[in-house]
Specification:
The chain has 219 residues and is an alpha/beta fold. The protein has 10 helices and 6 strands, in the order βαβαβαβαβαβααααα. Keywords: DNA-binding, Phosphoprotein, Transcription, Transcription regulation.
Length: 219
């Protein structure tokens, strides 16, 4: 009799204690095993390139790259990788964005002990997972938009501008951002000027406040 090997999980969250708690939940299941951890979104992407994993569980609010940014990149480089978003934000905009960037589930940290294992198993079966209690609200909002002929709300800025915004808000200089993203400092400055114009903001402080408001960094 052959046994199916456990699902290999990559766990990414910038809080070590939370990672430890989530790891205990997953490793207690015979069909799931955490094989790698990451402290931010960029590390998660780098780890997935070097460690064979089947499922990535990503926090939203992480340094360097958010979970949504990491999910977008992971979906691009490893289309077969299943992705779950684990978050403290009960927010339908984040939920729709998670689906847009390739995630197949959205789990609240407050009920991870109840929902996470089921969400992981659903993801592996390539089935969507929506945390209980939100299905009716989300479906109603989606149907209302469809009935009015409206698309899902588009983001105000591009993926590259979002990367620049997050790094600016974290306090990185244009030179440092250029090194992180492998672009010139001049290109960074051009993106930052575009951000200020698009968002109607005046300076770095205003950009930082905006980044906090949209969940790119934590206050």
């Amino acid at each position: 009799m052959t046994t199916t090997p456990p699902v290999r999980v990559l766990l990414a969250d910038d809080h070590a204690l939370l990672r430890q708690g989530v790891r205990l939940i997953l490793d207690a299941e015979p069909d799931l095993t955490v094989v790698a951890e990451a402290g931010d979104g960029a590390e998660a992407v780098a780890t997935a390139r070097s460690v064979p994993v089947d499922l990535a569980v990503l926090d939203i609010a992480m340094p360097r790259l958010t979970g949504l940014q990491a999910a977008r990149e992971l979906s691009r480089i490893q289309p077969g990788l299943r992705i779950l978003i684990l978050t403290m934000y009960d927010n339908d905009q984040y939920f729709f964005e998670a689906l847009r960037v390739g995630a197949c589930g959205y789990v609240l940290k407050s009920v991870a002990d109840r929902d996470l294992v089921a969400a992981c198993r659903a993801a592996v079966r390539d089935q969507p997972f929506i945390y209980p209690g939100t299905e009716t609200t989300l479906i109603r909002k989606y149907l209302d938009r469809a009935r009015q002929g409206l698309p899902l709300p588009e983001k105000a800025i591009t993926a590259r501008e979002e990367e620049i915004l997050k790094l600016v808000a974290e306090g990185h200089s244009s030179k440092e951002i250029g090194e992180i993203l492998v672009i010139s400092a001049k290109t960074v400055e051009r993106h930052r000027a575009n951000l200020l114009q698009k968002l109607g903001l005046r300076d770095r402080l205003a950009l930082t406040r905006y980044a906090i408001r949209v969940g790119l960094i934590e206050p």
